[in-house]
Amino acid sequence: MHDRRFPAAQAHKLEDPARLEWLPPAEVLALLNITPGEVIADIGAGTGYFALPMAGRTGKRGRVIAIDAQPEMLEWIRRKMETSGFTNIQLVHAEAESTTLPGASCDLAFMANVWHEFPNREAVLAEAVRILKPGGRLAILDWRPDVERIAGPPLEHRLSVEECTSEMENAGFQPQAMGHVGEYSWLVVATRK
Ligand SMILES: C[S@@+](CC[C@H](N)C(=O)[O-])C[C@H]1O[C@@H](n2cnc3c(N)ncnc32)[C@H](O)[C@@H]1O
After folding, report:
1. Comparing C-alpha atoms, which of 169, 173, 88 is closest to residue 132?
2. CB of 23 shorter than 6 A to ligand 1
3. Which residues of the chain carry a pLDDT beneath 50?
4. What is the pLDDT of residue 45?
5. CB of 112 closer than 6 A to ligand 1?
6. Contact yes or no for 6/69 (Cβ under 8 A)
7. How open is the CA angle 79-189-172, to the nearest 5 degrees?
8. How far is the CA of 177 from the centre of ligand 1 (A)?
9. Domains in the chain and their CATH numbers?
10. How far is residue 119's CA from residue 177's CA, in Å, rounded to a whole number?
11. pLDDT score recorded for residue 70
12. How far apart are CA 167 and CA 69, in angstroms?
């Protein structure tokens, strides 16, 4: 494991109720245009902070594939599924660079608060191109480098929305929307050409 990966031992921080105030899932989901029946890959899903609300939007005709490199994170989601009754979340232990999902199988690939952790973003984008259907969407959310928050990653690890957008374009995505969300984050939504 490299030094930027969020440690599973700190997973409880992703469940801090204060997070619902400064990064409300509903505000993010409203920008993703999820429709019932869609298949969503939540890459770097962590404790399922976004995976569960997204599974609510896809309904039982669709599903969320929660992918994480740390099995302890997937265990958090499995426990949440038990208590919440969600059955349309599939847990996949894999790296973002090689998700093991079939090609052209997803409507939306979503990556939240993990972009700055990837050592090889080009490989992650190539994998997103592979798993998305033509016209599918890629949504990347990460920490703003211009607003400090003690709990977030160090400022020098954060990437700007402009850098992300340019890397997405180079990988074959067409940006559709970008902007700030919550108090400390940016979001880019792009389509696969
Ligand atoms: C900071 S957490 C964010 C979790 C969740 N997206 C959220 O916003 O609550 C980052 C997660 O990405 C996972 N991760 C980091 N690098 C990864 C990679 N290359 N492949 C798959 N998962 C990765 C970590 O294990 C961790 O669970």
Report:
1. 173
2. no
3. none
4. 98
5. yes
6. no
7. 115
8. 23
9. 35-192 (3.40.50.150)
10. 25
11. 98
12. 23
